[in-house]
Amino acid sequence: MTVTPLGIPRRVLEFTLDGEEARVPEGSTILDACRAAGKDVPTLCEGDTLRPKNACRVCVVEVEGARTLVPACSRKAEPGMEVRTDTDRARHSRKIVLELLASSVDLSTTPKVAGWLKEYEAKPDRFGPDAARLNEEPRVDNDLYVRDYDKCILCYKCVDACGDQWQNSFAISVAGRGFDARIAVEHDAPLTDSACVYCGNCIEVCPTGALSFKSEFDMRAAGTWDESAQTETTTVCAYCGVGCNLTLHVQDNEIVKVTSPHDNPVTHGNLCIKGRFGYQHVQNRD
Q1: Residue of 147, 148, 150 lying closest to 133 (CA atoms)
Q2: What region holds the 4Fe-4S Mo/W bis-MGD-type domain (predicted)?
């Protein structure tokens, strides 16, 4: 029998969402309400295991009485609030943000972006061939994961996951200013000379593929990566007694990467180096 833990009930708030009544628990964000109502408000920097950073600004909506558009991922719902998610102003803002991002970085491995570019009629190439692009080569300095900054949108999720929100390793941060800002380790050294403990929790939260398993990176380069052909099996890590859940991604009878369910009460999507990368012995044929 499944036992549901009882907690202090939260007050239900009522407000207007696109002309219809919305009811959400107190403390919910506008984005929570949109998802509950089945509205597809795009977002890149928002994550279900991290506090909102308001970095990408793709999820902006209009709130009656507010001078500016507000980020739905962090703005809390309030009683009597009137929210409009699909106005011309909101759509135009999302279009510009998507155009600026797609014109400067590679979004080819970012889920849903291709559909959003089409939906909002965004044309990143309208800035011309001289538009500034990162054009950085992938950094392959270890056997576990790759840093492809040409796909980085500076959402800060990896910094938060490595910092005080989860791992507390503080191995990475933002270096530089303006368009030259980058995610980097201390003194921009190789990852092997940094404080990185290779937990891979930064990979788990990266929304664009700027951080990826070395196995995935190699398979994409070879043209063999095929998510449609992969199966996912959730099991329990056997390295220690904590009980972390692992989701094994298998293609052609080989484990190609390991993730962890975000709703798991033990891990919340986080793992250590053994749980995330220590799977090679499972498929050792010798």
Answers
A1: 150
A2: 230-286
CB-CB contact of 229 with 236 (8 Å): no
Sign of CA dihedral 184, 215, 201, 70: positive
User: Of 220, 232, 239, which is closest to residue 277 (Cα–Cα)?
Assistant: 239
The predicted-structure confidence for 43-63, as pLDDT tens digits, reads as follows: 999 888 999 888 899 999 999
Beta carbons of 99 and 71 less than 8 angstroms apart: no
Q: Are strands 12-17 and 82-84 parallel, antiparallel or unpaired?
A: parallel
Cβ atoms within 10 Å of 28's Cβ, excluding its own: 18
Picking from 78, 40, 81, 76, the residue whose alpha carbon sits closest to that of residue 59 is: 40
**266 within 8 A of 242, measured Cβ to Cβ:** yes
Nearest CA-CA partner of 20 in 86, 90, 73: 86
Among candidate residues 52, 38, 56, 127, the one with its CA nearest the CA of residue 94: 56
Average pLDDT, 10 consecutive residues per value, the chain (286 residues) = 60 89 91 91 90 90 94 92 94 95 92 94 89 86 92 92 92 87 85 90 94 95 95 92 92 94 90 92 73
Q: Do the Cβ atoms of 15 and 25 come closer than 8 Å? A: no
